[in-house]
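Pasting two entries for a bug report.
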Amino acid sequence: MRDEGEDQAPVRRGRPGYDQETVLRRAIDLFNAQGYDATSMGDLARELGLSKSAIYHHVPSKETLLSAALDEALDGLTAAFDTAVDADPGGDAYQRLRGVVEASVHLLAEHLPAVTLLLRVRGNSAVQLAALERRRAIDEKLTTLVRAAVDEGTLRDDLAPEVISRLLFGMVNSLVEWYRPGGPVAADDLARSVATLAFDGLHPR
């Protein structure tokens, strides 16, 4: 008679198994807690319960993790702004602008740790400089939408579009300081609140 557990796979011992997503999540949390430059691969290995040499089985370098994290924060924003800017130029620029601001809040809420990390990037490496360049491109797209809404008469024209776009993004980005997913404020309500607060003050006089 066979033992009851004879056909079961042997228990894996030694180095814990982690998928790439888990490693990335832990790395982002550690980068945010300690600062990217102050975090070593050894720190990440200890966080995961791995030896310093074993961590390279999961990821080739710290910068690879940073690149993946920054792409996560930027890819959704880039797609949302590309869609809004490339939409029918004869359409309502105000609605496209308001919609993309609300989409930015949703993306921040969904990818809060990665966005938090993005906002702390200072351009100390090629990966960070590339991320900052992508941020500048998104800023320019936002300014383009603001200018189009001003031109169609749906936003006030006594403020520079560049200033409006910086203030809009400043409001959205400030959410990383206090917003927590699963807290008392739902992402949908937050997006509507940000848009209402911003755009009610931007209506033409």
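Entry 2 (this is the one that rendered wrong in the viewer):
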Amino acid sequence: MSNQIFKAYGPLVQLVSDNADGAHTYGAIINLKQNTEVEIRADLTALTGTPAGPDGVPAAVPGAKGLWNAAKATKVTATANYNSAQSAGRALASMCINTLKPVLGAQWGSGWNAAGFTSGSLAVPTNPFAVLQQLRTYYENNPAREVADVNGVACTAVACEAEAKLVSAAESASNQSNSEAITAHTNFQTALTNVSNRASGLLTELTQVLEPNDPRWLAFGFEMPGHPSGPDVPVNVTATAGGPGSRMIFVQWPEARRADGYRVTVSDPVTLVVLAELLTQDAEVSVPGLTSGDKVSLTVSARNATGESQPSVAISIVVP
């Protein structure tokens, strides 16, 4: 029986936690040298962090996964704030342009060059920063053209400069969050790889110190290599419809223990006729070529050299 080193975060963390527990109990007895409990837990802690102590003392220390989660959340917020700032900036610029049309022309003309519109268009780009600065300069040079209140909006040099600063600050924060997210993701992938490599290293070391049928394999979270066992039944299978008219369904599930591959079966839920069947080594698959509007039933079974599990609980979805 071959042991599997999971790629997904959750199953891998569970496996390596078991690895550490096994090393704690038997590491000294079997004379582990390269993958001791201390080394296993150090790699695991770098990935998962440490929880807070009683009453928050000592404070929790996030690992690479927590930092990546936080960076993703910050990135989403910063991007939303940037989009909002751009939208508000465009609205102000458009309002100011409309107040100037009676003076500079309802359509673009040479008169608009003075307001910074030199490209033959009055269109406001997605990022209105430059347009707002141009309008600020125009108002500074032509204060009589300022309008203090247009339906509650001030079309003035001060207002345009303030809005431009908000757009600039939001853009800077968004760019910073993108950079931090990239760094956090890289660190997460590195920590995940280190933990995976540690589990692989322990597995290799155990083959040198334990017999294939030694039950202590189980204490480390591994199966006994000399005791073949079928894979677990996949659980928590989910299906997502593709775009309208794509006739495609995306199916995902957590990796099943002892699985080397999977069979995905798509059936008619009434007649039970099999409409599609796919084999995959990954815990996800795209099912194309189904009939739009049909309601189908999906199951997933796990496979390895010893055989195939029972199918998962069937789920239903309408083909887009």
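Dev reply: Rendering is fixed now. As a check, the viewer should reflect this: The helical segments are 9-26, 37-48, 64-104, 129-141, 157-209, 216-219.
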